[in-house]
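TASK: fixed-backbone design
INPUT:
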């Protein structure tokens, strides 16, 4: 399994992109920066887009992707609530065409919205995908994704602390985790449904207690303004727990 990070931040600039990553070039996970980071031939390889929740920074490239890839149908996989937000606010026939409708000017449906049920393992383009409820507004979910050769990652999506009930349901080799702010902003993180390094530490200790091991961790959704502080604090957590925790950057590739 090859994971390619397209966007790893919570704010966009010339050097930072909103959250999105690819699995083996065919599955896209979240759509903060899907089109700006990929050539048209690279976009054409994508068969399905998984969305963790309906916040703008995770769904906003879906209409632009549909517009550039209107010669075929791409699946969009998410909870019914996320699909409803997407259809009523972005691909609503006002801001952009209803890409799911044959009545749009494109004369064909270019997106197929596929609802997921929580804890139900579903085959998506040869990958087993399971959505798990996380601690975030709009009923945000995380995804456990297993490839045909048995490699498994878990993406938290956006989440706050309190994940002990999640860990017993998953057994990944890699966790891609939201760490948005440094420890000095722990209260803001808790209020907004995000993690800081200290909270990540507590969650990983709980994960090790429940599952008996610690997977590798890649940190994502980082606030650019606070990145040096987050990086220092994450390094301390990694040292303390004796595991590998890296901050993911745009363009990074990870092989599982
Ligand atoms: Zn969010
Ligand atoms: Zn977000």
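OUTPUT:
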């Amino acid at each position: 399994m090859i994971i390619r990070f397209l966007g790893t931040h919570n704010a966009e600039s010339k050097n930072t992109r909103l959250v999105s990553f690819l699995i083996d070039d065919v599955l896209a996970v979240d759509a903060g920066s899907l089109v700006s980071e990929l050539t048209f031939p690279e976009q054409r390889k994508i068969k399905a887009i998984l969305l963790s929740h309906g916040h703008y920074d995770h769904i906003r490239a879906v209409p632009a992707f549909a517009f550039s890839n209107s010669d075929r149908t791409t699946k969009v996989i998410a909870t019914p609530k996320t699909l409803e937000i997407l259809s009523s606010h972005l691909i609503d026939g006002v801001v952009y065409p209803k890409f799911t409708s044959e009545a749009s000017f494109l004369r064909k449906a270019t997106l197929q919205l596929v609802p997921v049920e929580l804890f139900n393992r579903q085959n998506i383009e040869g990958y087993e995908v399971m959505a798990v409820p996380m601690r975030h507004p709009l009923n945000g979910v995380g995804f456990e994704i297993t490839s045909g050769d048995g490699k498994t990652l878990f993406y938290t999506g956006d989440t706050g602390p309190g994940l002990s009930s999640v860990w017993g349901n998953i057994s990944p080799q890699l966790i891609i985790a939201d760490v948005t702010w440094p420890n000095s902003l722990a209260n803001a993180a808790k209020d907004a449904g995000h993690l800081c390094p200290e909270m990540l530490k507590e969650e990983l200790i709980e994960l090790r207690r429940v599952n008996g091991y610690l997977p590798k961790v890649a940190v994502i959704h980082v606030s650019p303004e606070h990145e040096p502080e987050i990086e220092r604090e994450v390094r301390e957590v990694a040292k303390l727990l004796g595991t590998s925790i890296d901050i993911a950057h745009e363009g990074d590739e990870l092989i599982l």
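COMMENT: Residues 1-117 form a domain with the Metallo-beta-lactamase; Chain A fold (CATH 3.60.15.10).
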